[in-house]
Design brief:
The protein contains 12 helices and 7 strands. By secondary structure, it is α/β, with parallel strands linked by helices.
Length: 330
């Protein structure tokens, strides 16, 4: 058993070293380990973390059918012409049969698969909320440690719920297509507030200009005093028209973050990651301890017998079992 563990550790170390030198097979293996969410995954992230922090992470989000994958294909081509290496995490819906990704985005970007400067990986949401997969953040760290200059994360395309991308990306691009009309009104409370750049794709269609005007009006209604004013651009991804302008704005926003925001956004992102990690770890430890004591079954029975509700049980359990008391609120 000890021999097997040593072999496993040696294999993980080999993958880590491969990631650091940018080997695509090692990157793929590392992301698979992360998706499987094993103890090995945590060792891997701990080892590669010092090599992260250099990439520009771009989130592409927006309603389904707005052309995210086609636009990403054009963005990659533009960055490659600038001799930038690119990594893509395309988050797809989960198959109800296999639990895996549908791979639709990866198929659309297939022509780029032979380019050694590009790495594309599809990832299933596995019912994780927010338009991204639970493993997305760590997969981005792998691509960052592998030396990718640009990392693009494409969300599923579910609309208002896709705000999790702001915890991953430094620059968020929100994509629309003409003809959405009242749908913009429906999603303004979520996705409209996280965009750094707004893009109306399929600009060759009728009503493209009206969609631009609608988005600009929505942004004015937001009425907050942002240092960065989100631009609204038009593209036709199928031909590449307008994509070079989008690249310019992406570079502008990157410079803005470096020059004007300083460490503020990075600090906020680090804080959000730490808080989430503490919550996950604490919850896991508490549940494991309750299972050992046989208390979890007891509490579940109380809920089923309608003797108490989950929130009340949680509050009492934290006090009685773990001596964690809620502070009095004035």
């Amino acid at each position: 058993m000890i021999c097997k563990n040593v072999q496993t550790l040696e294999k993980i170390e080999e993958i880590i070293q491969g990631v650091i030198v940018g080997d695509h097979r090692s990157i793929a293996k590392a992301i698979t380990v992360i998706e499987n969410n094993t103890v090995k995954a945590r060792k891997m992230i701990t080892s590669i973390f010092p090599h992260t922090g250099k990439a520009h992470i771009i989130g592409i989000t927006g309603p389904g059918g707005s052309g995210k994958s086609t636009l990403i294909h054009q963005i990659i081509l533009n960055y490659r012409r600038r001799d930038k290496s690119v990594g893509v995490i395309a988050v797809d819906p989960t198959s109800p049969f296999t639990g895996g990704a549908f791979l639709g985005d990866r198929i659309r970007m297939q022509p780029l698969s032979t380019d050694q400067g590009v790495f594309i990986r599809s990832m299933a949401t596995r019912n994780y909320q927010g338009g991204i997969a639970k493993a997305t953040k760590d997969a981005v760290k792998v691509l960052d440690a592998a030396g990718k200059d640009i990392i693009i994360v494409e969300t599923v395309g579910a609309g208002q719920s896709e705000v999790e991308i702001i915890k991953v990306a430094q620059t968020v691009v929100v994509l629309f297509a003409p003809g959405l009309g009242d749908e913009i009104q429906a999603i303004k409370a979520g996705i409209m507030e996280i965009g750094d750049i707004f893009v109306v794709n399929k600009a060759d269609r009728e009503n493209a200009n009206k969609t631009v005007v609608d988005i600009q009006a929505m942004l004015r209604l937001n009425n907050d005093e942002r240092a960065w004013r989100p631009p609204v651009l038009q593209t036709t991804a199928i031909t590449g028209e307008g994509v070079s302008k989008l690249i310019e704005k992406l570079e502008e926003h990157k410079s803005f973050l470096e020059e004007k925001m300083g460490q503020k956004r990075s600090r906020e992102k680090a804080e959000a990651e730490l808080v989430e990690a503490i919550k996950n770890k604490a919850a896991s430890l508490i549940i494991d301890e309750l299972k050992k004591k046989g208390k979890l079954t007891e509490y579940i029975t109380k809920i089923l017998e309608e003797k108490s509700d989950p929130v009340s049980i949680a509050e009492k359990m934290l006090v009685n079992e773990f001596r964690i008391q809620k502070k009095c609120q004035s």
